[in-house]
Amino acid sequence: MAKWRWEGFNIDGEKVSGIFDAKTEKDVRQQLRARRIRVKKISPPTFADLDLGEWFVEKGIVAPFGAKELCTFTKQFYVMVNAGVPILQTLEILSDQEKNLSLKKSLAIIRREVGEGRPLNEALRTQKGFSKLYCNLVKAGELGGILDEIMAKLVIHLDKQEKIKSQIKSAMTYPAIVVVISIGVIITMMVFVVPQFTGMLTESGQKIPAITQFVVDTSDFVSSYIIQIIVAFVAGATLFLQSIKTPVGKPIFDKIAMKVPVFGTIIIKGNLASFTRTLATLLTSGISLVDALEVSLETINNTVISTDIKKVRKAVMEGRTLVEPLSKIKYFPTMVASMVAVGEQTGEIDNMLVKVADVFEEEVSAAISTMTKMIEPLIIVILGGVVAVVLIAMYMPIFMAAGGVDS
């Protein structure tokens, strides 16, 4: 949006003027008509009036705000509302001080819509970045008059969710980085180290052992086609990453990933931790179990688990208890199913789900620690083995020649 200057006459015939933030002249005229102002002149925005930050956001140059920015905003919103600051004033203050351009623009629009009488939850729904879970909880807070309490729960939920996502991300990133570095070391040896020995072996004119010939041939191939190898690797990685995002490729990848030792445990427990914590947060806010299950599905990033939870929701809609369909899911721990059953019997299913989420999160942390401890020595052994083979292959002819001279 930009600043449009206008002049006109109010209902009493007095000359008035001002500035409106709007996208088009039509929007300015609509706002003026709503205020019962007869338009005399509307001046389009000059270059100096343009909000460059907002222009960058609209053109997609600036990335949308993420979970970290949303969590920070929610904390600040909670503190101010809890202190008794009116919602409209809170939005105005937070919008003015926000440094993230995408969030700043969203807050400005939300502030304007709330000022026009629209409920906060409806204004939030119009902006990307505010999930269905977030908007539903805000709606529950507005209807129950406990918006400050709901925002406090959202702060805790977002903190926990971001923590578990960060752990899973680090678990996936670390092995990838180590593997890439290892491949880089091996390629460097083949391109720069082995050729130095090859020249020496050629000059000696002696018979080359099979293992040495294999390493030399490999080095020649890598040196000759290094550009093609890099391009093929990048293209293959890009194709793979794109394929696992497709409706056909993602279910296949998700199913295989769940069966990988340790890594599969992290995926399963991580998704279940996010699901159970979201479900608990919704239930404690007064949202029905069926609706809470539907919203909680958004937190699951695995198609296999998502499909199973949809079956759980369908069973609950048919009148079954929550624990009955959950216990039929093979990868859902029996102990956790028992905890949910106790929660249903005592009427404290929400509190029990919080404890279940804590259990899953602890198990994810333990699995990540185990995987890290396994990967480090495994990669060291593999990389050390490759280096050892190369060194043996290069020095074997030298040792054989030395042995021949002595004899």
Task: Give the biggest beta sheet.
Answer: 3 strands, antiparallel
The CATH topology annotation of the largest domain reads as Receptor-associated Protein
Q: What ranges have pLDDT less than 50 throughout 5 or more consecutive residues?
A: none
**CA-atom Rg in angstroms:** 31 Å
CATH superfamily of the largest domain: Type II secretion system (T2SS), domain F
Can you tell me the CATH class of the largest domain? Mainly Alpha
Q: State the share of residues found in helices, binned by percent.
A: over 70%
Order of strands, main sheet, comes to: 2-1-3
Q: DSSP helix count?
A: 17
Taken from the alpha-carbon principal axes, the silhouette is flat
- Number of discrete domains: 3
User: Number of DSSP strands?
Assistant: 3
Structural class: mainly alpha
Average pLDDT: 83
Give short descriptive properties of this protein:
407 residues; mainly alpha; Ubiquitin-like (UB roll); Receptor-associated Protein; 3 domains; three-stranded antiparallel sheet; 17 helices; 73% helix; flat
How is this structure best described in words?
It is a single chain. The chain has about 400 residues and is mainly α. The chain folds into 3 domains: about 1-50, Roll (Ubiquitin-like (UB roll)), CATH 3.10.20; about 65-160, Receptor-associated Protein (Up-down Bundle), CATH 1.20.81.30; about 160-405, Up-down Bundle (Receptor-associated Protein). Helices cover about 75% and strands about 5% of the residues. A 3-stranded antiparallel beta sheet has the order 2-1-3, covered by helices on one side. Strand 1 (about 1-10) and strand 2 (about 15-20) form a beta hairpin. Helix 7 (about 130-145) packs antiparallel against helix 8, helix 12 packs antiparallel against helix 13 and helix 16 (about 335-345) runs antiparallel to helix 17 (about 350-405). It starts with a strand and ends with a helix.
